[in-house]
Design goal:
about 0% strand, about 70 residues
Amino acid sequence: MDTAEFRKRGREMVDYIADYLESISQRRVTPNVEPGYLRNLIPNAAPKKGEDWEDIMKDVERYIMPG
């Protein structure tokens, strides 16, 4: 990732956090998943090749945010 993309993705992350804070009153207080659910969804080893930023953010929404 070069510095231009780093700046772009950094701004996107700040926007993501701001959107989260703006919508926090509509989000669940407790998780809607069972403890340990994420363990079965992630690989045992890190990927050999990095993923696209968009795919990472989809995974965050799909797997991380419900917990």
